[in-house]
Design brief:
heterodimer; A: about 475 residues; alpha+beta; Uridine Diphospho-n-acetylenolpyruvylglucosamine Reductase, domain 2; Uridine Diphospho-n-acetylenolpyruvylglucosamine Reductase, domain 3; Alpha-Beta Plaits; seven-stranded antiparallel β-sheet; 17 helices; about 35% helix; globular; B: about 425 residues; alpha/beta; Fumarate Reductase Iron-sulfur Protein, Chain B, domain 2; Rossmann fold; 4 domains; four-stranded parallel β-sheet; 24 helices
């Protein structure tokens, strides 16, 4: 602690008990208290910190806004949490080349707001985009509703500056899209802070679509809503987003934003098409017809920007509105082939019933990326979280068996690292481990994440086969 | 009988565990928090402060922990986080609850006790004392006391000089009087005079009554009313706040009115929460809730009622700054904007971050002068960027704070209460 203060100055280091207690959580359910928190203001600060931690063999855990949903920012093995809250500047906006260079603490939406006057935006739009940081997006390879048509964070990052665990500063990629050599930028995006600390990011900017059409459709049950999703894709329409919400989720959302989602619907779809104005109304009309053919009780087209914003505010605030239903929630992020939506959703429901917990669903239906929100109340005892995790594991197992994966965009973190062997062979994990060792041979960068750890994964029989 | 562990908080005003449970720590509030914007640490964010309150309930931190007091005190209580919160966390009630416990848990120094007694018990509740104090202070300011105090280079003196800076160049005091409606009577209301409004911005009270009367609203006098107690509640002095609330409820029960009009956003927000303030007092809780339901901000009331008479033309480039306790505390956004747009001739330009606090926040610029200054500078920069010659708002603290910020930065921009501007428009028309 004293060494850190001497190195970086009092203003950049936190060590009081009440301070450390507030860096033990993020947006998810796991907690662990750090030994110190550092607030760097430059790449040089980060490099100095890395050298210090390397010398003293102290783990480093990066943190953006602490909105993550897999425990990525939790110092599960102690050490120093590095908060990027004070490295939040836009360094350059290069309009002709459609690039921006930013610091990792910049809030996702602030980038799009800053480039909007140039008719541009940053595409990946996680639901927490008002609060989450681009550094966090890079770490988790975040998605969002509009990934269906435009891809996830990795498709929009062309360069990064990183600090390795020994303090080495590296610049990978740049403004140009490089093809030669290994795609190291690609390796870093989604590495959850386990390879190094990202201190600067070069991102692609995209021209704002000429226009959009946003449709809200309400169905009697989730089955009709699910079938509609497949029918729309089968018809050759590529919406920029297809989001689904069940009745319980709708209740929380309506109480929060009054977006006008019908409360009696069993399932709701939020669909958007965007691009050149020509053809949008045709696509919208075809979507409307498919919805009605699948027994939609209501199909509403947003009449303007205001109504569109309200509909999206409802969807994007859905997780954050769960406090209206329950003090705690445990969210899963499994991905399945789209056609399996109806039966996996039924399985999700059954898992909730079996474990005596309510489950709300709000998710990226177009991608088959589920988000079952398992509601529990930690005040009633530790058994609540245990049952929620048991239900979550059943759901993830089903996702993998259906040919999907355990995470679509939230990351593995410390929440699902024990479940990695569900999806990967020991040899797969060993290959990933070798990549990690190449960058972080001492295992100081965000330890206890992604890979199963003997201490925490003992109880999972399938996890032991991975080692 | 099994022994129950002692409660971690001193008394029943503690931040409610049920309200805390609504927070799912998603972090949506962080980018809307002015102190988080300046300091960038979790402890000075709404989510962090709620977590601090929770750690006390969990017996992991004492209610007398210095860190708890530090971070809870740095909160502006602007409640921007409430507007941002999808789960509807009632943060204002939580932070006031926490403050009430800190005041009890950690003994105050004799000097702080004296200052608190002077402000909360002697001045604010007593109109004549406050009026005299204001007149003397303004006289001191005009005599150049500010530079004199600054010349001493003492911390305390500098703070007093900053305070003097906030004061307007002159004050007016008025007492409430009955004013009959012009034309057909559309409503009958009582009005809160307010402590600061009544003794420094008396002219604004008179203007509010005239504007209401112009629009067919009869304003009736209410005797025995007092300070609303908002500043007391913000500072954790809940017993004093309850006393004042009871006095006001009793006073306004004496008159028959459709609404109780308040033209200070901070007071209105506090009075709308009298039901919560007195929820544990069986003799008063129902009366308090009934009273609270009648409280309306002047802009809210007139905006909802609709103007029956068109104001006259004014020529100015104006911008609207939302008082936090109007927008975030009372969720009033559209009505003041509509009223402003109803004045012919005005060019109304949008203010970036109009929904951000100016740093006034009750007594904040006294208790946290450095943070208040950073937050004020951000507001002033946004105002200057609009090119407006007039800033319109609706709360005495904001009026004084913004005026002082603009003056110190050397900008000749007028700062005016919306009711004063409307009154001016009616007089020209």
């Amino acid at each position: 602690m004293r060494g850190l203060v001497a190195l970086l100055g009092r203003e950049k280091v936190l060590g009081a008990r009440e301070d450390l207690l507030l860096y033990e959580y993020d947006g998810a359910v796991d907690t662990a208290t750090p030994d110190a928190v550092v607030l760097p203001e430059s790449t040089a600060d980060v490099a100095a910190l890395a050298r210090f931690c390397h010398e003293h063999r102290v783990p480093i855990v990066p943190r953006g806004a602490g909105t993550g949903l897999s425990g990525g920012a939790i110092p599960v093995e102690g050490g120093v949490v590095v908060s990027f809250a004070r490295m939040a500047r836009i360094l350059e906006i290069d309009v002709p080349n459609l690039r921006a260079v930013v610091q990792p603490g910049l809030i996702n939406l602030h980038l799009s707001t800053a480039v909007a006057p140039h008719g541009l935006y940053f595409v990946p739009d996680p639901s927490s985009q008002k609060a989450c940081t681009l550094g966090g997006n890079v770490a988790e390879n975040s998605g969002g509703p509009h990934t269906l048509a435009y891809g996830v964070t990795t498709n929009h990052v062309t360069g990064i500056e990183i600090v390795l665990s020994d303090g080495t500063v590296l610049r990978l990629g740049g403004k140009a899209v490089e093809d030669e050599g290994y795609d190291l930028v690609g390796a870093f995006v989604g590495s959850e802070g386990t390879l190094g600390l990202v201190t600067e990011i070069t991102v692609k900017l995209t021209p704002l679509p000429e226009d959009k059409r946003t449709v809200m459709a309400a169905f009697p049950t989730m089955d009709e809503a699910s079938e509609t999703v497949s029918a729309i894709i089968a018809a050759g329409i590529v919406p920029s987003a297809i989001e689904m919400m069940d009745q319980l989720a709708t209740q929380a959302v309506e109480a929060s934003v009054h977006a006008g989602y019908p409360l009696d619907a069993g399932g709701i779809l939020l669909l958007e098409v965007d691009g050149p104005r020509d053809g949008l109304d045709d696509a919208r009309a075809r979507i409307e017809k498919i919805c009605r053919d699948h027994l939609a009780s209501e199909v509403r087209v947003a009449s303007g920007a205001l109504e569109r914003e309200r509909l999206w505010a409802g969807r994007k605030g859905a997780f954050a509105a769960m406090g209206r239903l329950s003090p705690d929630y445990y969210v899963q992020d499994g991905v399945i082939p789209r056609t399996r939506l109806p039966d996996i959703l039924r399985l999700v429901k059954d898992a909730g019933v079996r474990h005596r917990l309510r489950v709300a669903n709000v998710f990226h239906a177009g991608d088959g990326n589920l988000h079952p929100l398992i509601l529990f109340d930690s005040r009633l005892g530790p058994d609540e979280l245990e049952r929620a995790k048991a239900a979550g594991l059943e759901i993830l197992t089903a996702c993998v068996e259906a040919g999907g994966s355990i995470t679509g965009e939230h990351g593995v973190g410390m929440e699902k690292n024990c479940y990695m062997p569900l999806q990967f062979q020991p040899s797969d994990l060993a290959a990933m481990r070798r990549l990690k060792d190449a960058f972080d041979p001492d295992g100081l960068m965000n330890p206890g994440k992604i890979f199963p750890t003997p201490s925490r994964c003992r109880e999972f029989a399938f996890a032991s086969t991975a080692r | 009988m099994t022994a129950t562990p002692p409660l971690p908080y001193p008394n029943a005003d503690a931040p409610s565990q049920d309200l805390i449970a609504a927070c799912v720590h998603c972090g949506f509030c962080l980018p809307t928090c002015p102190t988080y914007a300046v300091l960038g640490v979790e402890m000075d964010s709404p989510r962090g402060r709620i977590r601090l309150m929770k750690t006390v309930w969990e017996h992991r931190l004492g209610a007398d922990a210095p860190g708890l007091e530090d971070h809870i005190s740095k909160c502006l209580d602007c409640r921007a986080c409430e507007t941002a919160c999808p789960s509807g966390v009632e943060y204002g009630k939580l932070v006031e609850g926490a403050r009430s416990q800190i005041v009890v848990a950690r003994p105050r120094s004799p000097i702080e006790r004296l200052i608190r007694a002077a402000a909360f018990e002697w001045l604010l509740p007593h109109r004549r004392a406050l009026g005299t104090f204001a007149t003397l202070s303004i006289a001191a300011k005009r005599l150049g006391m500010g530079s004199l105090l600054r010349a001493t280079r003492l911390g305390v003196a500098r703070r007093m000089a900053d305070l003097l800076d906030l004061l307007p160049a002159h004050s007016t005091a008025t007492r409430s009087a009955t004013i009959s409606a012009r034309g057909t009577r559309r409503a009958r209301v009582a009005m809160l005079e307010g402590c600061v409004m009544g003794s420094v911005f008396g002219e604004t009270n008179a203007a509010t009554a005239r504007v209401l009367a112009r629009n067919g609203v009869e304003v009736i006098a209410t005797v025995d009313q007092t300070c609303c107690g908002a500043l007391h509640a913000h500072a954790g002095e809940r017993e004093l706040a309850r006393d004042l609330a009871r006095r006001n409820i009793a006073a306004f029960e004496q008159v028959t009115a459709d609404a109780v009009i308040v033209n200070a956003a901070g007071c209105g927000a506090a009075m709308k929460e009298y039901g919560w303030l007195l929820k544990d007092d069986p003799a008063w809780s129902a009366r308090a809730s009934a009273f609270a339901a009648k409280v309306k901000d002047a802009t809210e009331f007139l905006g909802d009622l609709g103007m029956s008479e068109r104001p006259g033309t004014l020529h100015a480039r104006v911008t609207w700054d939302d008082p936090c306790h109007l927008l975030h505390g009372q969720k009033i956004r559209d009505q003041p904007r509509a009223l402003l747009s109803a004045i012919p001739g005005l060019e109304v330009v949008p203010l970036a971050e109009a929904d951000w606090c100016c740093g006034s926040a009750g007594t904040y610029n006294v208790t946290q002068p450095d943070l208040a200054r950073s937050i004020l500078e951000r507001k002033v920069a946004n105002i200057v960027r609009t090119g407006a010659d007039t800033v319109v708002t609706a709360n005495p603290g904001c009026l004084m704070q913004i005026q002082s910020g603009l003056r110190q930065a050397g900008h000749k921009v007028r700062v005016v209460h919306l009711m004063d501007l409307l009154d001016e428009a009616y007089r020209t028309g």
